[in-house]
Amino acid sequence: MTGVIESRENKDLRAAVAALGARHGRGFDRAALWSEAAKLGYLGVNLPEQYGGGGGGMAELSIVLEELGSAGCPLLMMVVSPAICGTVIARFGTDAQKRKWLPGLADGSLTMAFGITEPDAGSNSHRITTTARRDGDGWVLTGRKVFISGVDIADATLIVGRTEDARTGSLKPCLFIVPRDTPGFQRSQIDMELQAAEKQFELVLDDVRLPADSLVGDEDAGLLQLFAGLNPERIMTAAFAIGMGRYALARAVDYATTRQVWKLPIGGHQAIAHPLAQAHIELELARLMMQKAAALYDAGDDAGAGETANMAKYAAAEACVRAVDHAVHTLGGNGLTREYGLASLITAARVARIAPVSREMILNYVSHQSLGLPKSY
Questions:
Q1: Cα 337 from Cα 159, distance rounded (Å)
Q2: Amino acid 121: pLDDT
Q3: What is the pTM of this model?
Q4: Angle at the Cα of 318 (from 315 to 321), degrees rounded to 5?
C-alpha cells in the first residue's frame, strides 16, 4: 500500500470479502461465517505466512472486517483474536508459542480473547490490579476482568496482569495466555441490553496457576508489547465502525431512492439528501485515517501508529453514530422496525464511542501527545 491508495491485491481482497458478506447478510450465522472466512484465508490475512497466515498486515485485516460490516455481518472476534492476540504473539511470542497458537488463529480453528478492562481501572491501564507472582517455575494470577468479549467461545484468553519489578518494587504490565479450562479461571456472562453474537463476560482469576511458558514475550517489555496489541485494536474498531456506518447508509440511500411521498423520491429533497451526503463524507474521511494508521503500523512505526490509530478510532466512531442516526431518520417509523434492521444499530453504534477506549481519553491523548498540552491527571 502506497499512501492511502490501495494496491490491486487489496482492491481484489475488498471485492472478494464484500461478495462473501453479501452471501451471508444481516441475518448471518456467526459460526458459519467464521468458518467460511477462515477457509478462504481471511481471518489470518495479517499473520506470518510461515504459520499459515496471509503475510499481510492491519491494512488487509481491516479491509476484511470493514467489508463484512458493510454487508451487515461483522465478526467482532476479528478485533480480538487475529488483530490483538495474533499480532502480540507473532511479534513477541516464543517460537513454541508461535507454533502452538498462530496456525490455529490463522485458520480459525483456534480463537483467543483479550482481557485488560477491570471494574475499578476503567481506561487507566496503570491501575490494573490483576497481579502475577512467581511460584516456583510458574506463575499465579489473581484478579478480575470485566467486559471481555467471547470468552465462552475462545480457547484461551490473553490476560494483562502486573508483576513486581525485583529492582524497584513497582508493578509492570505483563501478558499471559490462560487456557479456557484452567482451574480458578471463572467467567460469568454480563446481561447486556446490546444484543450481539459475541457475549460479554466478567472474569475472576482465583489463584490461577500457569506454567512459565504462559508469559508472552519479555517480562521487562510488557508496556511495549501491550501497546503493540492496542494499536491494532483501535484500527480494527475503526474498521468495525466504518463498516457499520456504511451498512446503515446503504439502507438509507436505497430507501430514499425508492420511497415516494410527493412527486419524487424523498432522496430528491435536500433535507434528506444532505445529511446522507455528509455521512458518506465523514465515513470516507475516517477510512483515510484508518488506512494511514494501518500503513504506519505495518511499516513498524509504533509511535506514528499510536497517534493515527486513536484518531481513526475517534473519527470512525463519530461518523458511524451520525450515519446510523441519519439512516434511522431517513426511514422514519420504518427505521425503528425489526424488518429494516436499523434500530438495533442505534445502540451498537455507540460501542465504538465507548470501547476499547472512550472518545474523551482519545482527546486526552491527542491534546497531550500531539499538541503538547499539560495533563490534568
A1: 40
A2: 74
A3: 0.94
A4: 145
Q: Does 356 sit behind a cis peptide bond, omega within 30 degrees of 0 on the bond before it?
A: yes
pLDDT in tens, 199-253: 999 999 999 999 999 999 877 666 778 878 899 999 999 999 999 999 999 999 9
Residues of the chain with pLDDT under 70: 1-4, 122-125, 165-170, 220-222
Question: Cα angle at 41 between 17 and 24, to 5 degrees?
Answer: 40
Cell digits of residue 19: 461478495
Q: Which of 260, 270, 172, 178 is nearest to 220 (CA)?
A: 172
- Give the burial class of 374: count Cβ atoms within 10 A of its Cβ; 0-12 exposed, 13-18 middle, 19 or more buried: exposed
Is the distance from CB of 149 to CB of 75 less than 8 angstroms? Answer: no
Distance of CA 141 to the CA centre of its chain: 25
Condensed to tens digits (0 to 9), the pLDDT of residues 135-177 reads 999 999 999 999 999 999 999 999 999 887 655 656 778 999 9
Amino acid residing at 3: G
In a 13 Å sphere around the CA of 86, the CA atoms on its Cβ side amount to 34
On whether the CB atoms of residues 248 and 324 are closer than 8 A, the answer is yes
Contact by Cβ (8 Å): 145, 117: yes
94 is written with which cell numbers?
A: 516464543
